[in-house]
Amino acid sequence: MSSEQTEVLVVGGGQAGIAMSEHLTRGGVPHIVVERDRIAERWRSWRWDSLVANGPAWHDRFPGKEFDLDPDAFAGKEQVADYLAAYAGSFDAPIRTGVEVTSVRRNAGRPGFRAATSGGPIEARFVVAATGAFQTPIIPDVVPGDAGIHQLHSSSYRNPAQLPPGGVMVVGAGSSGVQIADELRASGREVHLAVGPHDRPPRSYRDRDFCWWLGVLGKWDAAAPAAGAEHVTIAVSGANGGRTVDFRRLAGSGITLLGRAGAYRDGVMAFAPDLAANIAAGDANYLSLLREADAFVERNGLDLPEEPEAHVLGGDPDCVTDPVLSVDLAAAGITSIVWAVGFGADYSWLEVDTFDERGRPRHQRGVSRELGVYFLGLPWQSRRGSSFLWGVWHDAKYIADQIAIQRGYLAYDEARQPTLPAPTPRIADALRGASRRGGPALATTGAA
Ligand SMILES: Cc1cc2nc3c(=O)[nH]c(=O)nc-3n(C[C@H](O)[C@H](O)[C@H](O)COP(=O)(O)OP(=O)(O)OC[C@H]3O[C@@H](n4cnc5c(N)ncnc54)[C@H](O)[C@@H]3O)c2cc1C
């Protein structure tokens, strides 16, 4: 079957795919972005109704475009999706929506890759997997499906009215878990929240948002945690104008805090005795950021208002000092569990040799072990900020650079092949350091 030819195939039309397309376009590299749903679909249909960005509009964006919002406001999920769609439109990103890539294989005996897609085969010299860090919702195999409990993942949660009447157990206290628990409690539900290890920066301190502090203190650029070191989730919220995630306030509002969720047996769920330790570690993280911020202010002679009250945490609530280690779900009136424990990866379509025994990509800054295959949007791909809106743009720039370097070698080789016909326009472009706008190379070939 004939296949369409291009230079770079980008799989995924979320923020990672769009950023990749922008950098390829700037370099004049022909490419196609293939997205199985709509542009930025995850922001539209995988988030709850009231979700707003975790960072203010001035920060959570690409460098080249501002939100049409108060810079200190938090964009709603639809506004983020609209922003990304408009951004892609601003440089005519060659995105094909409604097309799924079902497999990518290396060509045998010749360079490049062949992708099978629902829109027909595509051949490309390079492939960028921009399918992101949040692919497969994880619901641990803890509570059996026939236990009479309504279970859903945070990505399927929309609003309190969606859940059957009764109490709700929220498992996971990263940004999703705490925001969903808070919203459910505010709607009048009885809520239990299982809290694991977390970082919880102040929403703002001394008149600057935490995004600013993490930036000036170099923490968004922190390199990946050492192998084996635990990745700790970050609990922040832009909801209701943005306020610090404070587990004492959540307990004060009537939410029962628990330690890490454990096994389930005969209607009873067990919890680790680690709630106090998790809260204390989160507090330590919070306080250390305040201290680093104070030191930064002093060192640089900044005129930012002091905020001594931010250092006062208050006493621990009863559920922390006298922890609940098991909950009989029916007796507690709990009818639903929201699992806010994160996402897994699914690269089953990418049939190349660059995955470890657990299916995780082996790569260095997104450059895979399979020459010609790149990843984008991975957590900690190059730094803490990698999977976020602003961070992925910089990683995309790096990947575009790596592709340009490889194209340069290929162009040199083609130019030195005496028996080959004159360089194709594509290679000639590369040799001249082409600056024309990118777009898909639409030639088709009968290559098998
Ligand atoms: C609840 C939540 C809130 C978040 N809030 C923020 C925030 O406020 N600020 C911030 O910076 N970051 C935030 N993030 C993190 C991150 O910015 C988002 O998850 C973002 O959607 C990641 O973008 P991406 O392009 O890497 O991946 P995705 O948005 O997941 O895009 C990947 C795309 O690939 C497509 N795809 C997958 N497989 C295939 C295939 N085989 N063929 C074709 N297409 C395929 C999918 O349909 C999808 O559209 C949040 C994440 C979550 C889960």
UniProtKB/TrEMBL annotation:
<protein>
    <submittedName>
        <fullName>NAD(P)/FAD-dependent oxidoreductase</fullName>
        <ecNumber>1.14.13.-</ecNumber>
    </submittedName>
</protein>
<dbReference type="InterPro" id="IPR050982">
    <property type="entry name" value="Auxin_biosynth/cation_transpt"/>
</dbReference>
<dbReference type="InterPro" id="IPR036188">
    <property type="entry name" value="FAD/NAD-bd_sf"/>
</dbReference>
<dbReference type="Pfam" id="PF13738">
    <property type="entry name" value="Pyr_redox_3"/>
</dbReference>
<dbReference type="GO" id="GO:0016491">
    <property type="term" value="F:oxidoreductase activity"/>
</dbReference>
<keyword id="KW-0560">Oxidoreductase</keyword>
